Please model this.
Amino acid sequence: MIKNRLIGPFTQLVTMDNLPLKGSVHDNQLEIIPNGGVVVCEGKIVKTGNFDELGIEFGDRNTVIDYIDNEMVAIPGMIDPHTHICWAGSRANDYSLRLAGKSYLEIALGGGGIGDTVEKTRLASTTELEASLTERAKNYLRNGVTTIEVKSGYCLNTEGELKLLEVIGKVNKKLAVDLIPTCLAAHIKPSDFHGNPSEYLKSIINELLPEIKRRNLSARTDIFIDSGAFTIAEAREYLNVAKAMGFDLVVHGDQFTTGGVALACELNARSVDHLDMTKEGDIQLLAASGVIPVVLPGSSLGLGNPFAPARKLLDAGCSLAIGSDWNPGSAPMGDLLLQTALLGIFEKMTMAESLAGITFRAAMALGLTDRGILKKGLLGDIAGFPVSDYREIIYHQGSLNPSVVWKRGEKGIF
Ligand code: NIG
Ligand code: FE
Model:
């Protein structure tokens, strides 16, 4: 017979339930259950509530108790909606050049940048890539991140991009953490492609996307719109075809130049990510749309650039998810909680908005309705922090990590 698992008592269970998908959120809107418990069965939450009452209700119903005897605050397992963690090599050289005053674009033109990682990643075996991706994903899971979006985009040819998506799929099967794969073959035009950017995008459409569909490797496609990458017109053409093929659309937009947000809204993309340069008019467009803005403080920290206007976005009525952008170039840190806490203090985001950005709002940026909130029917993904007040989580600016993580109701050691 299938067993229920009652997890608790949590000093505070922060459910993230009954909060709006869009706009500002005050801390007093958070649902906090003191002495809370979660009942999980077959990976999904059956009920949340007072631990003692749940104990009485489920005590005789074939239930095992996962008893917590220290103070602990539970939040939904965190969700990173934007990473590039399937890569080989290091870009420490780029970083030293940035410290010496060179810009991201200058470094790319000088032989560093994305092209450098493409060279190393093409040469890496699947075994090497699996090992490094596994390491990064495990590290994330230990830190309470239970769902991670992972982009391809460091091989930029049909064979190589398929290799990356296969590796992501394989590691996803092997680990408890969920990896959500996204095709980012439209990262930049690779230097060895004979043809213009538009022809490169057509080759992705003709060769790669149908194969991704056939092998069921990803349901999402992303494009980098910026100087040094693709123009608005090129992206519009590419995304329209990808959409007609059934892909969910994601845009790297407004990192250095504007226009990406407006295109994402025009095409009703799932999310538009970066937004460092986004201005008032586009903020209004976003607020009126169903597109989820994903801000990436890790790339601001990695490049030494200002943060995206998170406060303005929230005040205008936009949703707001937060991703790490973990990648070897612009965002080498890979610490979602630390970056969220820093964005919060600079942008004046409430703790509720910060937590929303890495839980249910991040889930919506991935189109996932089965996680990000601790409530009946959703996944039993829980991050437990060894404190008695949820505010400690953001207050410690990333130096406080969960002591226990549950993925689909199963307790890690992962
Ligand atoms: O999101 N902006 C484009 N792509 C990545 C950086 C990738 C890299 O530098 O390797 C980003 O910042
Ligand atoms: Fe990115």
